[in-house]
Amino acid sequence: MRLARAFGTLSLLAYPGAAFAQIVGEPNTTLAFHVASGENDNYFLRDGRTSAQLVLTSANSTSAARRLVVALPAGNSGALAYFLPKDASADAGSSGGNPTSSTTLGVTLVEGSFKSTTADYFNVGVQADLVFDQNATLGVTIIGAVRAMRDYVEGGGTMHSIFNYTLAAYNETSVRMHRQWINTTSPDSSRYRGADLYLTVPAGSSARLAVTPGDNGTWTPPTMDIIVPANADSDPGQAGVVTVKVVTNETSLPGLDTQRLFLPQNANETTALQSVLQGLSDGESDAAKQVSFLTYEDKFTAGGWRFLTYFGRDSLIALRLLMPTLTSEAIESALGAVIERANDTGALCHEETIGDYASFVNMQNGRSDLGNAPFYDYKMIDTDLLLLPALSHYFLDLPQGAARAEQFLAQNAATLQNGTYAEILNRTISYNLARATPFSRSPQVSNLIRLRPGEPVGNWRDSNEGLGFGVYPFDVNSALVPASLRATQALLEAGVFGFTGLDAGAVGDVAGVWEAQAAGMFEVRVAQEIAESRLRNFVRAANLSEALLQGPSGNMSFYALSLKEDGTPVEVLNSDLGFNLLYGANVSRGFLQHVVDALQPYPKGLLTDIGMVVANPAYDANTTNIDILDRAAYHGTVVWSFQQGLMAAGLARQLDFCADGQNSTSVDTNSTPTQAPEWCADADFVQTLRDAQERLWTSIRGAKDQLYSEVWSYSFDNATNTFSVTDLAALSPSGTESDAIQLWSYGFLAIADPDSREWHTGDVNPRSP
Ligand SMILES: *[C@@H]1O[C@H](CO)[C@@H](O)[C@H](O)[C@H]1NC(C)=O
Ligand SMILES: *[C@@H]1O[C@H](CO)[C@@H](O)[C@H](O)[C@H]1NC(C)=O
Ligand SMILES: *[C@@H]1O[C@H](CO)[C@@H](O)[C@H](O)[C@H]1NC(C)=O
Ligand SMILES: *[C@@H]1O[C@H](CO)[C@@H](O)[C@H](O)[C@H]1NC(C)=O
Ligand SMILES: *[C@@H]1O[C@H](CO)[C@@H](O)[C@H](O)[C@H]1NC(C)=O
Ligand SMILES: *[C@@H]1O[C@H](CO)[C@@H](O)[C@H](O)[C@H]1NC(C)=O
Ligand SMILES: *[C@@H]1O[C@H](CO)[C@@H](O)[C@H](O)[C@H]1NC(C)=O
Ligand SMILES: *[C@@H]1O[C@H](CO)[C@@H](O)[C@H](O)[C@H]1NC(C)=O
Ligand SMILES: *[C@@H]1O[C@H](CO)[C@@H](O)[C@H](O)[C@H]1NC(C)=O
Ligand SMILES: *[C@@H]1O[C@H](CO)[C@@H](O)[C@H](O)[C@H]1NC(C)=O
Ligand SMILES: *[C@@H]1O[C@H](CO)[C@@H](O)[C@H](O)[C@H]1NC(C)=O
Ligand SMILES: CC(=O)N[C@H]1CO[C@H](CO)[C@@H](O)[C@@H]1O
């Protein structure tokens, strides 16, 4: 199953002082779990007081430094601190990263010590006891906004002095580092409004703190050493324990517990859905608790530690995948969060910036008058297109939504806009229709939907590099535009909105042009000889082996990742076909053949021993993409779990369109087309698709322990010609790391492994491939 384990099974140092750390009046913990991921141990907690993730470099890591991250979804705030071995600190300077020293500092979390806490100045947060096995010094420390922490970690060490903390108080046994929010409404509240990192030496610990204040004039940080006696390691009575505490003034968000999130299992039924529901609502499943940690009454958050805040795309894709297992309350929390954040035009919000970083963004925009009012960004071009398909699936396909539309749509928005949800949706529909209409009148590249002017990003491949520097993304144009229109058409036809002025048939006609024309504009054809020579060049350049190229080959055709401004394709084989499979109506046989071809072993296709890579530049005439999209790139030849989820759920959905119902492996309920697709009658073709589905799942099962994390990379063993999982952070030049838990990766909770047909017996949980 999953790497996640309970605290109790970790062999961590017990420390006699721990008993003193009990907090009187501690609220009952509703969620507590541990996840090991990459080079990190992740501890999660939510109770009546707070919600937090603590990340500590694992004891196994060979890095000399130890990193502590605490992230609190309330305000998206927390703290980042590096601990360096004292001896190595001279050459490490304040780089915080990886000092080149053979000394490996040991910092371990005392079992059971991670808990919620309160502090002076009306603050709440979390604390934990850390055992230091030698003298250490504090490296770079950032307190406050998680976004400021990410700027440092992923932004090549970017720091903004506006986020500097101050040394509020210190002595031998206690230090308080205070980050005062940019926006403090009165001088008096400055003591309160902010976040604090405390280091304190608990009773029974032999550790001492040696603090020298920095030079405020030059913003030099203080020097802060943790001194432990030479025998601390061997004598538990002398353990060098320091309690770290991260607290803030923000109000914690009310969470959705597993019972409010997931449908209960009906033990009397033996459908695929009932089978996957096992252990979700009752919280028996670790994964159910992990989803619960990421979901709140007012919004779903995207992943931790880096994205414990609202993201529209993540919310909507996760929702689409998980929806068959979710309660109405949970589904409407996610939908409501998206609708509440629509702008006046009906465009949907990509990311919400809150807390201290919102003050910073507002200042950058010349709007410091807005203080720390949330900043909502609308730069993406895909998010707007994901809402209607989610609504239509909920109201028209699933039993949870069957009788909910009227009440839901009549709700009044309370965040950004006035008016009912129906009125806001009317604007979103018009906005999407207006964007789609020019192409339906004149289907040419320049009428496709382009990244917004001046924006290097626009879809889930969140960078110039990720799109191979193209500006017309494949997923948006081939899958999401028509899917959004078809969903709109279906909702209008069902009379769900009761709008006037929108003609369902006309919307369908616009969709029809996109379905017929858009994907073809991305088609890339590479003749057999050229394909073979490019593949040979690729395996050399990517340090793979020609042995991977054995087997039959032929002409290759596939859909480009994106189109450049002039319409030329970015010839990168990619996984975005999954969007069409899960969201698309009228997916053609030709399209499905491209899916079959993409689901071949890498590097001919996308499938490795440890999952499906999201991009493969092997056939690209532009060989610079081999480096740009390599295994160290965030959107390169790396595996994203949610992309596998889209592909797996999408294939099951398409195959279900032919099935007689008996043979269904789908957990989801999809409205079937009035007419079964023509290819359903071709048994050989259906078998070809099933074979591709089997290859996909074999690949997915190869990294089952990673399934709920965000992204991972591979190592290739030339002796055995096999791929194994590698932590992206260890390769990434920019320090991009994977979130240990990522909301949309949990889509797998609602997808059945087609090989686990034994679910009827209840022995095998199809959830664990
Ligand atoms: C904590 O849980 C116990 C046992 O379930 C219950 O008796 C107690 O009232 C709870 N305390 C709070 C503060 O919720
Ligand atoms: C650390 O190493 C041990 C033994 O090799 C292994 O069982 C454990 O899973 C590793 N932990 C992490 C966080 O990698
Ligand atoms: C620097 O000192 C000034 C007063 O001398 C104080 O207001 C400010 O908070 C200090 N800043 C830092 C980063 O310590
Ligand atoms: C150090 O500071 C803490 C917090 O202000 C205080 O409780 C403690 O008594 C101080 N210790 C010494 C040795 O002064
Ligand atoms: C830490 O440094 C102190 C001197 O500041 C020294 O006495 C002590 O032995 C050092 N501890 C270790 C574990 O080396
Ligand atoms: C934040 O601090 C203020 C005092 O300035 C206090 O009244 C309020 O209760 C605190 N809020 C939280 C959520 O702790
Ligand atoms: C299961 O079936 C039994 C016997 O028919 C019935 O008493 C029980 O209520 C059913 N349970 C559920 C959850 O439907
Ligand atoms: C803080 O925010 C309020 C509005 O919430 C604003 O009036 C005030 O000017 C802001 N202060 C600063 C220093 O930005
Ligand atoms: C809403 O966002 C869209 C997309 O960025 C933008 O074109 C539009 O101008 C925005 N509307 C308002 C009122 O800001
Ligand atoms: C919402 O209505 C209130 C009261 O009529 C008005 O002050 C406010 O500007 C409106 N907000 C928006 C976003 O239209
Ligand atoms: C929906 O939008 C159309 C314009 O696209 C407008 O004519 C109509 O009045 C709107 N209906 C509602 C209920 O807002
Ligand atoms: C105490 C502290 O964090 N000081 C930092 C303030 O910001 C500058 C960069 O702008 C850093 O160099 C300091 O280390």
Distinctive features:
globular; seven-stranded antiparallel sheet; alpha+beta; 6-hairpin_glycosidase_sf; disordered C terminus; signal; eight-stranded antiparallel sheet; 20 helices; Glycogen debranching enzyme; binds 2-acetamido-2-deoxy-beta-D-glucopyranose; 28% helix; 3 domains; disordered N terminus; 769 residues
Describe this structure in words.
Keywords: Signal. This is Glycogen debranching enzyme. The chain has 769 residues and is of the alpha+beta class. The protein folds into three domains: 3-248, no CATH class; 342-517, no CATH class; 530-640 and 672-738, no CATH class. Helix content is 28%, strand content 21%. The strands form nine sheets. An eight-stranded antiparallel beta sheet has the order 1-2-3-4-5-9-14-13. Strands 6, 7, 8, 10, 11, 12 and 15 form a seven-stranded antiparallel beta sheet that branches. Strands 17-16-32 form a three-stranded antiparallel beta sheet. Strand 10 (166-170) and strand 11 form a beta hairpin. The chain is globular, with a radius of gyration of 26 Å. The protein binds 2-acetamido-2-deoxy-beta-D-glucopyranose (12 copies). One 2-acetamido-2-deoxy-beta-D-glucopyranose (NAG) binds at residues 159-161, 164-165, 214, 219, 221.
